[in-house]
Every structure is written in structure tokens, then in C-alpha cells.
Amino acid sequence: MKERKILLKLFVVAVFAVFVFAASSCQKKDSGKITLKVGDNWGATHPMAAALDSVFKPQIEKASNGAISVEIYHSGTLGNEGDLWNGVRNGTIEVAIVGTPMNQEYKTMLISDWPFLYRDLSHAKQVWTSEIADEINAEFHSKFPTVYMLAWGPNSARTFTSNKKLTTVNDFKGQKFRMPGNPIHVGIAQNLGASAQVIPLGELFSALQTGVVDGQDNGMVTVLSEKFNEVQKYLYETNHIIATLEILISAPVYDKLSDEQKKIINDAAKATAAKAWDDYIASVDKDRETLRKGGVTVTACSPQDQALIIQKIKPLTDKLYADNPWAKSLTDRIKAVK
Maximum distance among all alpha carbons in the chain? Predict the structure, then answer.
């Protein structure tokens, strides 16, 4: 009996030792490993979200030899755009891809939603992969020291959709549109004779389905990825804004990295944005055809109608220039990019 007790004690000690050794080995193995949680607010088929999967994650993990792992959460899994911005700002999320939820704190970010700013999508890509982006990135970090902006990718060329007839400028009058919560989008809808209601993207499908609003403005890629085409009948291809999405990283995370690791992440962010721009530009014609085949009435905005829209929203653009002294020089620089 005594020998049995001694053997039992020895067995317990041996098991405990194995456990401690395994835990110690595991700790040594995992020490120094970095995990980046990446949150976005888009379906996985959106070019920006897809580029995170195909470029950002594999490039970082390969270049760091596994020292940095990347976990990507699409479709608002980590919260809506405001949540993602607050999360990366306070350090609860390492990396976030957002539009401009901070544009009232840092007005220069209104440039992301400036109406009729570019000649076309290729021009927009040239701008946001140039030194203009690098300069704003530096200014952004000065304004928000707990965040770095790494790269600018595409959101989309925004179009209007509706359940009511929407094929000319006159059709806006009296309609209700969901617009993002910034003064540019709201002002465009109002200047066109419509009313604007701010609704989070994650709640928009239901709002369209139940008639809370008649329509919304987003790119065709987003209409498809968020399945708005299932609850909308008309799309008017105004392309009134070519909006961007920015890749942000929490400064406390970034500042702890080695110079080599910072370069790995910077390179991956820029490659991700470039890939997203290329894929988005290539997708537009296909998306238009997909919508038409699905029964949505897609109407191109004629040069005459575009000129009329620009005229109608002039009160908005005049106010933007008057309220933002930086805007004239920056928009002139952007328009001059070849």
C-alpha cells in the first residue's frame, strides 16, 4: 500500500513536470510572435477585402517567417466603421480598414469624399499611390498620435440606387436616401432635392427591404457584395464620388516593431492597396453587366446630366471650399496628377 502511494506521488510529479516543460516550451516558441487582428466593414468579395486575404495576410506572414500572423475579420465582425476607428485608435484592434469616420476631427479627410474630383478611376489610383498620400499620412499621425495611416485603397465610384424610378436628375426629388454620416454625402442628396438619413452599413439592407429609405449611394461593387441589388430596382451611374478606404494600424503596436517588421507591414499595405485598385478598376464593367442581368435598371449618367448635378450641388462645394482653407490647393494638386 505504501509503495503504491509512493508510485502515485511519483506519477503525479512526473505528469506535472511534463506539463510545466510543455508550457515552458510553448511559451518560448510563441514568445515574440505578433498577431494582427484586421477588421473591415465589407464583404469578402469587395476588392479591398479580397486584397487583404490575397496580399496583406500572406505577404506579411511569409516575409516575417511566421513571426507576424494576420487574422482578418470581414463584414463588420469587429464592429461598424465607427467601432473599427475607435478600436484601432485605442489599441483594441491592431489594424482597421475604414473610410472617413474621423473627418469632423480632421477635416482634411473630407478629401476622400470630395465630389467630382477625378478624371476617372485610374486617375484616383495615381493620386492615392503618390506622394500626396504619403504627405497626408504624416499629417494624419500628427493629428492622431495613436494611429498610423499606411495606404489608401478604393472604396468605390459611388452610384445611386432606388426602389423608385431613378434614371434622370429630376428623379431625385422627394426620394429618401441612406447616406453616410458626413456632410458631403448628406449635402449631395439634399442639393439634388432628396432627403438624407444616416444608417450604418450593416443595417442598410433591412432599411431598403422594409422601405425605411427608398435608396442609397454606394459603388456597384458594394451593391453586389452587400446584396442591395436584391432589394433595389434602379441604379443611376452618377460616379459622383470616388471614395477611398484607408489601412490604419495602432501606433502602440507599430512602434514596438523592428524596422524590418515595419517595412514588411508598410510594403504589404501598399501592395494591398495597389492590388485592390487594379481589381476594382477591372471589375466595374463586369459588375454593371451582372446587375443588368439580375434585373436592375442601370442608367449611365450623361455628360449633360453630370453637368446638371455639378450645378445643383454647387452650394455644397462652395461651402466646402469656404469652410476648408486647405481644400483649394489640395484639390488643384490632385487634379494636376497625370
Answer: 100
Domain ranges of the chain: 33-336
Q: What phi and psi values does residue 164 have, to the nearest 5 degrees?
A: -100, 160
Tell me the pLDDT tens digit for each residue of 143-192. 999 999 999 999 999 999 999 999 999 999 999 999 998 899 999 999 99
Q: Is the pLDDT of residue 9 over 60?
A: no
d(CA 325, CA 335): 17
- Give the single-character DSSP code of 210: T
Residue 27: predicted pLDDT: 34
The CATH architecture annotation of domain 33-336 reads: 3-Layer(aba) Sandwich (3.40)
User: pTM value?
Assistant: 0.86
Nearest to residue 52, comparing CAs of 217, 220, 249?
249
Residues with Cβ within 8 Å of residue 64, at least 6 apart in sequence: 261, 264
> Rounded to an integer, what distance in angstroms lies between the CA atom of residue 234 and that of residue 103?
30
CB 79 within 8 A of CB 201: no
Helices (H), 44-143: 47-51, 57-63, 81-90, 121-128, 131-143
Phi, psi for 122 (deg, rounded to 5): -65, -35
Q: Which residue has the cell 472604396?
A: 155
176 vs 162: CA distance, rounded Å: 9
Residue with cell 503618390: 130
Q: Where are the alpha helices (DSSP H) in the chain?
A: 2-30, 47-51, 57-63, 81-90, 121-128, 131-143, 183-191, 204-209, 220-225, 251-255, 259-293, 303-312, 314-323, 327-336
C-alpha cell at 294: 439580375
